[in-house]
């Protein structure tokens, strides 16, 4: 192992664990909140089961607004909200708030797009069998869209990792922050390159896992 | 018995079905036929309220569907089977799971589901395909799975929306045989939408001809029977070159 990695091993592990924590929380937020919002966006769309133009427009505007924010400005903009939720705007825990907000909006849109790929006829068949909206969602929509949902989550996770690299501005730490502070600001270019390498390997592994799971789930 | 009373359905300003009154008796195979845009599929979809009429009443076996709330309508739909031109199976579920979902929606006892699914698959001749996925089946097999799914809850009525239109002649004949068997052995009332005259003539006891959203005429028929099909390639050659009837 290169000397520079051995020298900073403890800090690197801490940075990796901070990235995992921030990305992990944002994945949970994306699944628990982004998935229902995306599903509701789909269901409230024109000609869909719960068609509701007002709800659709509100959700659509919210998702688009969050996604159109430059992420650094979103982090700063959300400082009062972050402080309200976790009591501080600084640190790894505080960094998870803006990251979760963007994760929810990002994944909600991908969920909506995945559900739009479900053949209309499958939903029609479900309705003709007397399925409730809840059963249509869980027994038909999610089953039929599952590989798209997994691929969407994979794409989202890769984006979350990218977003997490700038969380150093609020003391969030993580691999990106470590690379800037030690690699760039202290002129340890080799250390920065190793951090970039870690990120590349991480993204490759996540993409490989996501694609493999999606392929395994797809029986179409 | 299916009773449609003065049914009207508009899409925007277009009147797809206009003041249609029609009674379909129990145990009947009733054809709905007409040119494209005549309103036959819309009329069929009005029978289980996939399309909600703007005016009129839909009564199935004494139950007025148009007066039910959404929960009651969901319950009523569980006893009205429906099959579609493009099958509409859940591609990510096995054949077994596709049939089982109908039972699950009707809260059919869990311990009895497996036997019931296999019984339905056996009825359509697909019990050996239970663990396959729809993508592994031919068009005719997919339609038979759809029929098994529609029959799972022992419906009194089976609505068929162009069930043979996406299939070749031989496969169409197979599906029509299955539908005839459903009618004869299970006593299910079948409403069959088709634009193919031969299909309606072969198995229907009565047929309603639709034109521009209105009933042109309802006629009694003596089913001519489903033509024997020949899968031998020579039969295709005969049909192509000699204009024969397909028998080698």
TrEMBL record, chain A:
Membrane topology note: Multi-pass membrane protein
Residue span, ABC transmembrane type-1 domain: 16-210
Membrane-spanning intervals of the chain: 20-43, 55-79, 85-110, 122-143, 149-170, 191-217
InterPro entries found in the cross-reference section: AA_ABC_Transporter_Permease, MetI-like, MetI-like_sf
Keywords assigned by UniProt, alphabetized: Cell membrane, Membrane, Transmembrane, Transmembrane helix, Transport
One Pfam family, short name: BPD_transp_1
Keyword Transport: yes
Intracellular or extracellular location(s): Cell membrane
Keyword Mitochondrion in record: no
Family: Belongs to the binding-protein-dependent transport system permease family.
Name recorded for this polypeptide: ABC transporter permease
Species whose genome carries this gene: Solibacillus merdavium
Source lineage: Bacteria, Bacillati, Bacillota, Bacilli, Bacillales
Automatic annotation (TrEMBL), chain B:
Residue ranges of domain ABC transporter in the record: 2-237
GO molecular function: ATP binding
Phosphoprotein in keyword set: no
Pfam families cross-referenced by the UniProt entry: ABC_tran
Highest rank taxon of the organism: Bacteria
Annotated signal sequence range: none
UniProt keyword annotations, A-Z: Amino-acid transport, ATP-binding, Cell membrane, Membrane, Nucleotide-binding, Translocase, Transport
Protein name as it appears in the record: ATP-binding cassette domain-containing protein
């Amino acid at each position: 192992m290169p000397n520079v990695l051995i020298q900073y091993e403890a800090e690197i592990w801490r940075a990796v664990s901070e990235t995992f924590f921030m990305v992990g929380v944002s994945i949970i937020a994306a699944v628990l909140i982004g998935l229902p919002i995306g599903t509701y966006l789909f269901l409230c769309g024109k000609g869909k089961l719960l068609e509701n133009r007002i709800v659709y427009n509100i959700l659509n505007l919210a998702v688009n607004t969050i996604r159109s924010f430059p992420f650094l400005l979103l982090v700063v903009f959300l400082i009062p909200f972050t402080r309200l939720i976790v009591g501080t705007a600084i640190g790894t825990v505080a960094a998870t708030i803006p990251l979760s907000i963007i994760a929810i909006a990002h994944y909600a849109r991908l969920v909506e797009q995945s559900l739009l790929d479900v053949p209309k006829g499958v939903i029609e068949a479900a309705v003709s069998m007397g399925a409730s909206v809840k059963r249509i969602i869980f027994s038909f929509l999610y089953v039929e869209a599952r590989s798209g949902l997994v691929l969407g989550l994979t794409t989202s996770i890769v984006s979350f990792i990218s977003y997490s690299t700038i969380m150093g501005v609020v003391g969030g730490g993580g691999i990106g922050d470590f690379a800037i502070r030690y690699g760039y600001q202290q002129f340890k270019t080799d250390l920065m390159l190793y951090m970039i390498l870690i990120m590349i390997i991480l993204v490759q592994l996540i993409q490989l896992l996501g694609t493999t799971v999606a392929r395994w789930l797809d029986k179409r | 018995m299916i009773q449609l009373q003065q049914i009207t359905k508009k899409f925007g300003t277009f009147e797809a079905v206009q003041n249609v009154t029609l009674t379909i008796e129990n145990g009947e195979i009733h054809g709905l036929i007409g040119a494209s845009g005549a309103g036959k599929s819309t009329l069929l979809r009005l029978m289980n309220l996939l399309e909600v009429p703007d005016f009129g009443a839909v009564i199935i076996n004494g139950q007025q569907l148009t007066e039910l709330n959404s929960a009651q309508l969901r319950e009523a739909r569980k006893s009205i089977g429906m099959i579609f031109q493009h099958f509409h199976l859940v591609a990510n579920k096995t054949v077994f799971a596709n049939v089982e979902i109908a039972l699950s929606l009707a809260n059919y006892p869990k311990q009895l589901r497996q036997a019931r699914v296999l019984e339905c698959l056996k009825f359509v001749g697909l019990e050996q395909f239970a663990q396959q996925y729809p993508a592994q089946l031919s068009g005719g097999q997919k339609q038979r799975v759809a029929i098994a799914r529609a029959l799972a809850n022992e419906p009194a009525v089976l609505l068929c929306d162009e069930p043979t239109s996406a299939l070749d002649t031989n496969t169409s004949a197979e599906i029509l045989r299955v539908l005839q068997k459903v009618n004869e052995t299970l006593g299910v009332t079948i409403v069959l939408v088709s634009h193919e005259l031969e299909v309606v003539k072969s198995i229907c006891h009565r047929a309603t001809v639709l034109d521009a959203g209105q009933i042109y005429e309802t006629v009694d028929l003596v089913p001519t029977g489903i033509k024997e099909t020949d899968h031998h390639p020579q039969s295709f050659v005969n049909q192509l070159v000699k204009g024969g009837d397909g028998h080698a």
